[in-house]
Amino acid sequence: MLLHGLLAIALAAAVGQTLVLVVRALQGRADPRREQPWSVATAWLYAATMVVGALTHPTYRYFVRALYLDQHLTWASNLFDLKELFATIGLPLAVGTALLSRALRGADEEDRALRLGQLVAVALTAGIVWFDLASGLWLSLQRSL
Q: Among residues 15, 24, 51, 132, which is most buried (max CB within 10 A)?
C-alpha cells in the first residue's frame, strides 16, 4: 500500500507537469524535449500505480472493504468503487496523451485542434489522478491494511 501511495504521488506530480507543458504549448511556447518525456512518464507511472494497486486489491477488498467498510462506512465503500472506476478510465487517457505528445513533436500552429484534444485528455487525466489520490489517502485514513 505504501508503494501504491508513493507511485500515486509521483503520478500526480508528473501529470501536473504534463498539464503545464501542454498549456504552454497551446500558448505557442512548446517544448517537446520536456513535454514528451513527462507525458510518457505519466503513462508509465499510471500503469505502475494500477499494477501495484491490483496486487493489493484482493487483500484490501476482503480485510478492509468487506469486513469493515461495507458494514460501518458504506459511503467509503462507494467512494472506493468510484475511485476504481475513474482509475480505469484514466489509463487510456494517459496512454493517449503520451501518443499525442509523440505525434505532435515539432508540430506547428496548424495542429491546434490536436493540441486542444491533448489538453482535454491531460486535464481529464489530471483530474482523475488528483481525485483518486485524495480519495485514496482519505480512505486509507478511515481504515487501511
A: 15
Question: For residue range 72-102, what is the model confidence (pLDDT) as tens digits?
Answer: 999 999 999 999 999 999 999 999 999 988 8
Q: Which of 40, 44, 54, 65 is nearest to 4 (CA)?
A: 54
Grid coordinates given for 124: 481529464
CA 37 to chain centre: 16
Contacts of 142 (CB under 8 A, 6+ apart): 69, 73, 76
Q: Please, are residues 114 and 72 in contact by the beta-carbon 8 Å criterion?
A: no
| DSSP line for 66-130 | IIIIHHH-HHHHHHHHHHHHHHHHHHHHHHHHHHHHHHTTT--GGGHHHHHHHHHHHHHHHHHHH
